[in-house]
Amino acid sequence: MNFASDNWAGAAPEIIEAIARANDGAAPAYGGDDLTRRVEARFCEIFERDCSVYFVATGGAANGLALSVMTPPYGMIVCHEESHIQMDECAGPEFFTGGAKLLPIAGHAGKLTPDAVTNALRGFPHRPPHGAPASVLSLTQATECGAVYSASELKALCDTTHQAGLSVHLDGARFANAVVATGASPAALSCGAGVDVLCFGGTKNGCLAAEAVIFFDREKAKDFEFRRKRAGHLWSKMRFIAAQFDAYLHDDLWLTLAAHANTMAKKLSEGLAPIDGVEISYPTEINEVFVTFPDGLAEKLKEKGATFYPWVTPGDPAGGKMQRLITSFRTSAQEVQSFLLHVKSARQA
Length: 349
Prior knowledge:
Elements: H1 13-22, H2 34-46, E1 52-56, H3 59-68, E2 76-80, H4 84-87, H5 92-97, E3 101-105, H6 114-122, E4 134-140, H7 151-163, E5 167-172, H8 175-182, E6 197-201, E7 211-215, H9 224-230, H10 239-249, H11 253-272, E8 279-280, E9 288-292, H12 297-303, E10 309-310, E11 322-326, H13 333-348
Parallel strand pairs: 2-3, 2-4, 4-5, 5-6
Antiparallel strand pairs: 1-7, 6-7, 8-9, 9-11, 10-11
Helix pairs in contact: 1-10, 2-10, 8-11, 11-13
């Protein structure tokens, strides 16, 4: 009953097999190999646009390095107060950008709205040299609370942001789950809506260590390769990241894995919702279930072997009682059923 994180799930067999295949023979280093070039071209096909693609091993590096080319060190990044770059990257964006300021703002279920962004920017009028100029809006798809932006919602946000003179960064650590949840194309949920740079995640969805920073305007990426190298994130044996993406994108494996994770979360959420005293905190749209249990129940479930973590956020109205349960491509229906039986049993005791 492992619902701690999709990072705990390991790698999909297809990914491990692809890495093993890539290990045969010699290949040019630092991304000069044919496999890397082929996967870069595949990304252009998926997003229906000629784009610049750069591989890194971690989501934190992807976000930080992407933002470093989108804002000057004295600039400001607008983001949700619960976003990963605000809560979980140990000031990595500030480090990679050389000191850019994060402006966290509130929004239900981790989502921002055009009005929220506009109102936040009004509080920081252009007044050089005293005020940090707003440079980037950073969004997360799907959000840290498991919510999904529709293509129209993203477009409205991007339009508002571009009109204000900012660019748009999209943290797509769970982008695959969002694509499955909405049924929209990858392009519609990114460049088609106006996103400038996407950090496309694979690690949470079956890869070993594979993230791609995708610039939909090649001009905006002109110095990224130097920043990646300087930061120590240029893999010499890049073919092993490319091999993961080669398998991940083949026959839509990335969507198949995400669909299973989403389905397991939906079963978990639907099973928990009717149980007396259990409250689902946010709609379950991807592979995350946010739930508040009656006092003492979380501890009893952990004693039975279940693994999950509390979800604590700025100004948390639940006082740290909300729990986050995450499913993955490896979550079985049996795990879900076993967990639900333990919850029901504990409530009936």
